[in-house]
Amino acid sequence: MAKLNVNGSIMDVQVEDDTPLLWVLREHLNLTGTKYGCGIAQCGACTVHVDGAAMRSCAMPVSAFDETQKIVTIEGLSPDSSHPIQQAWLALDVPQCGFCQPGMIMAAAALLANTPRPTEAQIREEITNICRCGTYNRVIAGVQRAAGSSAAG
């Protein structure tokens, strides 16, 4: 049994200790916005926030967490998609296929929480998520817009 603080609610789940957090979120809590991509914490599709930091959930066992740590998924980022990153993504039509975008949005939101006006170099360095469609330039523009640092923003 694990007790987790997810999107502001304490949740009890019955899983093996080595079950990755990603599968607890998707299969046991029905929070399917967090995606499975690679399973080895490389692609970033599974990115969530843990105590405000972006973390890849596919390689972290549920036993590494307890109810004192605040886990936020894409569903918990904003109840009405009003987060500045989500608004910038909509305004700039950032995604193509969209599969990686929940992870991208979570990584970008964590970056802005720590670095409110990041440079392009900081964005490229901090957001290491992989996008098969190659929307990296739009991701950078979206982060800059959300930060209020782009010409369009």
The overall average pLDDT, rounded, is: 95
Global shape: globular
What is the first-to-last residue Cα distance?
A: 46 Å
**Poorly predicted residue ranges:** none
Number of helices: 6
Going by CATH, the architecture of the largest domain would be: Roll
The spatial strand order of the largest sheet comes to 2-1-5-3-4
Could you say which structural class the secondary elements and strand pairing correspond to? alpha+beta
CATH class category name of the largest domain: Alpha Beta
What report would you give on this structure?
With 153 residues, the protein is an alpha+beta fold. The protein folds into two domains: 2-77, Ubiquitin-like (UB roll) (Roll); 84-147, DNA polymerase, domain 1 (Orthogonal Bundle), CATH 1.10.150.120. It has helices at 21-28, 74-77, 84-92, 101-114, 120-126, 136-147; strands spanning 2-6, 9-13, 47-50, 53-56, 70-72. A five-stranded mixed sheet has the order 2-1-5-3-4, with helices on both faces. α3 crosses α6 (136-147) and α4 runs parallel beside α6 (136-147). The radius of gyration is 15 Å and the shape is globular.
Topology (elements, then pairings):
Blueprint: E1 2-6, E2 9-13, H1 21-28, E3 47-50, E4 53-56, E5 70-72, H2 74-77, H3 84-92, H4 101-114, H5 120-126, H6 136-147
Parallel strand pairs: 1-5
Antiparallel strand pairs: 1-2, 3-4, 3-5
Helix pairs in contact: 3-6, 4-6
Keywords: 2Fe-2S, Iron, Iron-sulfur, Metal-binding, Oxidoreductase
Pfam families: Fer2, Fer2_2
Protein name: (2Fe-2S)-binding protein
